[in-house]
Amino acid sequence: MNYAVGIDIGGTNTRVALINEAYEVLQREQFATDPLHPAITFQRIADTIAAFGHTVKGIGVSCPGPLDLVHGVVLTPPNLPGWHHLPLTKELSTVCQVPVILENDANLACLAEAAIGAGKGYSHVQFLTISTGIGTGLAIDKQLFHGSRGFAQEIANCIFWKDGPSQGDLKKGSIESISSGTAITKRAQEAGLTVAHAGEVNDLAKQGNVAAMQIMEDAKEYLANLMATFYAVLDPDIFVLSGSVALKIEGFIEEMEARVKEKVYDALKDNVKVVKAQLDEDCGLIGAAYLVFHA
């Protein structure tokens, strides 16, 4: 039996998991990420892998972006100031003495869903996670599409609404500034609503609150525009949706499928298929293991 290690490095915590070829998570460990000294985190990772007690084929890693996936370099993640321009694959491989592959979290989740989750059996799988932010990935025959420089599917800053809302470094009218959970909550709070997350905004909308209804309508309508554009450009077999907004708001998946069907050519409506992601929060770790086993 071969084993791989999947790692999710976050701005707060790092998760390390031992995964077998059946994509079962056998062991896992979580500890605080050192945002200033990556060498400390790397050594903790190496110690954790050694404690697993198995020889591993390699390590798949997700890390906050932006990332240079071609060269395995962490660029300028705002929540990891000491990691800027870090050649992660080279340095972590040196510490752990096994090959390391760097990938972004949405791509890894996409790969897991395409290989063993909701997209299994389909050739072209378009993945979207609608949560704190919006992330996407495209798998073609279980291979991730990266584009020429590794930045394909980085859609958060795609503009859909002229002079629309913005947040952080994103441009006005960007899709993440409209349809992400953070954006929905922010717009509701700016409208004077007392809410803590997008689900509460949706609840108010169902109760007839006019401001909440408009915010949810904007979020769903512009997201449907994005998905219909994906359909026109990429012709995916299936859309797989994940993230707290997509999974926790009742009827969200079904409504998105209906909206997208109304935005494509009538003759193509029956081809549009939008489904719920099947894998849980370990999907990124599982995708990392798949990447290692099929490198």
UniProtKB/TrEMBL annotation:
User: Into which family does the record put it?
Assistant: Belongs to the ROK (NagC/XylR) family.
Tell me which positions the record assigns to the signal sequence.
none
Q: Which organism is it from?
A: Longicatena caecimuris
**InterPro entries in UniProt:** ATPase_NBD, ROK
| Record-given protein name | Glucokinase
Q: Which UniProt keywords apply?
A: Kinase, Transferase
The record's listing under CDD domains reads: ASKHA_ATPase_ROK
A single MF term (Gene Ontology)? kinase activity
